[in-house]
Amino acid sequence: MENEWLAVAVENELSPGQMKRITAGNKRLLLCNADDSYYVVDEMCSHEDYSLFLGCIQDGRIKCSLHGSYFDLKSGAPETEPANQPICTYPVKKEGGQIWVLPRKQE
Ligand code: FES
After folding, report:
1. Which of the two residues, 12 and 3, has the higher pLDDT score?
2. Chain segment 94-105, per-residue pLDDT in tens
């Protein structure tokens, strides 16, 4: 399952700044459109068990709305405290008019 690409959205489904909750390989993930670049990251914040879906996307980063940490959407690295652990990121591709995710941690 972790080695299979899964179609999770049609290409124009999300506007820039929008995100979508997806389930892939038993993981709860977020598909994010940041200025028409797509990223997939863990849904839950690494600081506490809080959904990043309730936050927002700004300048290639996702903000947790509970305590305000920002995470880089490409690397998952936390950019501001209080979070000090990364969130996982996952490979994404566009193909055949759809967005696909490989539900395996990005190396
Ligand atoms: S729960 Fe996300 S920064 Fe605290």
Report:
1. 12
2. 999 999 999 987
Domains and CATH numbers, the chain: 6-101 (2.102.10.10)
How many Cα neighbours within 13 Å face the side chain of 98?
8
Tell how far the Cα of 45 is from the centroid of ligand 1, in angstroms: 6
Over the range 23-54, which residues count as b (16 or more CB within 10 Å of their CB) and which as e? ebeebebbbbbbeeebbbbbbbbbbeebbbbe
Instruction: Give strand pairing partners of 55.
Output: none
Sheet holding 89-90, edge to edge: 19-24, 27-34, 37-42, 89-90
d(CA 98, CA 76): 23
Q: Which atom of ligand 1 is nearest to the CA of 48?
A: 1
Residue 5, judged by CB atoms within 10 A of its CB (0-12, 13-18, 19+), counts as: middle
Q: Which residue minimizes the CA distance to atom 4 of ligand 1?
A: 67
